[in-house]
Predict the structure.
Amino acid sequence: MSFLMRSIRQHPKTWFYSCWLLINLIQSAGTQLLDDEAYYWVYSRFPDWGYFDHPPMIAVLIKAGFAIFKNELGVRLFMAVMNAATLWLVQHMLLAKNDRLFYAIALSMGVLQIGGILAVPDIPLTFFTALFFFQYRRFLDKSDLGQSLLLGVVMALMLYSKYHGILIILLTLFSNPKLALRWQAWLAAMTGIILFAPHLWWQYTHDFPSVQYHLRERNAPAYRFSFTLEYILGQILLAGPLIGWMLLYAAGRFRTSDVFARALKYSMTGFYLFFLVSTLKGRVEANWTVPALVPLMILAHAWLSQSFTHARWVYRLMPPALIAVVLLRGYMITDIPQLTGRFKDEMHNNKVWAASIKKASGGLPVVFFNSYQRPSKYWFYTGDTSFALNTTTYRRSNYNFWPMESEMQGRRVFVVDDQMGNYSSSTLIETRKRPTYGKVFDNYRSYSGVQIKPNPDKLEIRQGRLAVFSADIHPAPFASHFGFNAAPENQTLEITLDIFKGKSLEKRIPVIATLSSGNSLVFSAKDTIQLPPGEYRAKLGISTSLPGIFSQNTAALPLQISK
């Protein structure tokens, strides 16, 4: 024991990072996937330069890890490594020498320990944010060709992780406007743009789905003060949970004229303010600000190193914070029915849930409605390819682009959704999560891979008039299965125009789509628009072989109804 304690005292850094990584690897292996993690695992099955929701970094990391371990550990392997590496980078950027305080801060921040294992884009983004600041400091010290190119590479990697990385770049520039006058900074920027160009090209060729989703397809409810309050409380908990208030206070109190520290201060403050203002447009997820934890830790550590009175709070609150983390780790890795059944639980009973559905399906391909999570979980835990059919009442996802739909055309499939209970000959499926229904359908047909783009992309319709507008059709590579490419002129398709006010479906209007020439369509509504004047959202859907079910085949389109 004395040898062990002596080794810890002599090599605290080695012991800290070794234990941190080992514990997270064990946690990664023993905890079932969250819904989004399973979805990103499906990303990794289809390598590409981009995806509907995010850039491709998360898919690359999962694919690399899953090639080593074919389980949850493989999915999270490089997240755990990046999490430890992020802390290592932060420690090497500290503005004051006090390793003991740094370890206490890190151990008190639950999100770094628990969230650090999750296979989500925030983890590589946080790592590359830390690497960006690390490289930026080197760039300030020595702005030669090599440092400029490396800075550009890191900027590209940050953007390939998550689009939020652009905020770090812009806020750093705002903190040091003189960068705009230096050729080295321009070289770094051009390097980043060139390396990021393949993803921009992917967005262009897919009609910018990520931009369309965030600007048009996300429902923006009327502002409620709870959005702002939840955001503020969420940031305090995210930075702690017990010492979050202290870290935010300490980082805010820190003052400096140093160029590097100013970049940290601008980035942290700007990140928090940007998303605070964003609450005016809708609910903001707490994890969107995770990259701000990098400058937060460095700045808070610097101020607390000068204020022993306040630093004592970190040491006092570290033990209860660690106890809370240990309890949460235990909950994640074990199944306690009295707890897991009380609320939505993504980390337990996934294997038995998937097995129950597979048994009910009799081995048929399984199709889910309006969920990118459930088919992804089913695929991961059974090994059987699944598909998500997104209807007009939901939103598009990357399942609109992947080829699974073409592989199911004309086949016998098992459709799983609660509304299947309304069909005759449906099957009740009892699972450990909750009961649902399934039904067998022969000769399955759906067309969510076909995307329709009206021209112009904002519809304007007079009240009481028939809607007539043109559009271009953009089949996915497997669209030949649908017959659009070979369809004769004047072919009539069964399509619906669904009109929404917020999330409420106000009107479903059948339309006739005439394929005139090439990929051009002319849409004519079969009924007049009898809705009050105002702003709405519209979606076009193509009928499927399932009665009354239409796939979503457009982004949410702005619709103006006038008198």
Q: What stands out?
A: The CA atoms of residues 167 and 274 lie 9 Å apart. The first strand starts at residue 366 and ends at 369.
